């Protein structure tokens, strides 16, 4: 994924590049004395892998569009002194991953929402695709993570949510992401999900008792 391990240049200062380590990184870190077990933790997002929330959202958008993407930007236009706004257009690009590899991933993300760890993002009005994550924290409660997009066909929004000390991914990041997507796509939360919205709005994760 082109958004991982590099700055995306989103028009804001202090953007972090994260870390997507390759063989050169491990050669330097372990003086060339490393083996495949050293990198197994990267498969579940641990170890030396470091991603920003924006990079995760961008990766979700690339999956949603089956490999086609533009870099995200905060600025829509610039206004030179005394002139009309100049709208910035950013070129569409394509990753070097064949189309056929995206559908199984999308189907898996859809399944996670329908009947997996991400069911609290399910919405009867449109199909949500997503994946939960639980970031282990040695200093307290784990961090809750979710990334995904909606709707599955003709996607309009990609999202990533990272909530510190909120526990496993399906507990808080997933419903928060689901509610945000619903608000963006529909403008309001349907009655059957109002209780979930209220629970997320009133949750106190700062004073949450340790499990």
Written overview of the protein:
- By secondary structure, the protein is of the alpha+beta class.
- It has a single domain, classed as Beta-lactamase.
- The protein is 27% helix and 14% strand.
- It has five helices and seven strands.
- Strand 2 and strand 3 form a beta hairpin.
Which spans have pLDDT < 50 for at least 5 consecutive residues?
none
For this structure, what is the CATH homologous superfamily?
A: DD-peptidase/beta-lactamase superfamily
Q: First CA to last CA: what distance? A: 36 Å
Largest sheet: 3 strands, antiparallel
Just give the CATH class.
Alpha Beta
Specify the structural class: alpha+beta
Q: What overall geometry do the principal axes of the alpha carbons give?
A: globular
Strand fraction: 5-15%
What's the helix and strand layout?
Layout: H1 23-29, H2 53-64, E1 68-69, E2 77-78, E3 86-87, E4 93-94, H3 102-115, E5 129-135, E6 143-150, E7 157-163, H4 173-186, H5 194-202
Antiparallel strand pairs: 1-4, 2-3, 5-6, 6-7
Short description:
With 211 residues, the protein is α+β, with helices and mostly antiparallel strands. The protein has helices at 23-29, 53-64, 102-115, 173-186, 194-202, and strands at 68-69, 77-78, 86-87, 93-94, 129-135, 143-150, 157-163. The chain has one domain: Beta-lactamase.
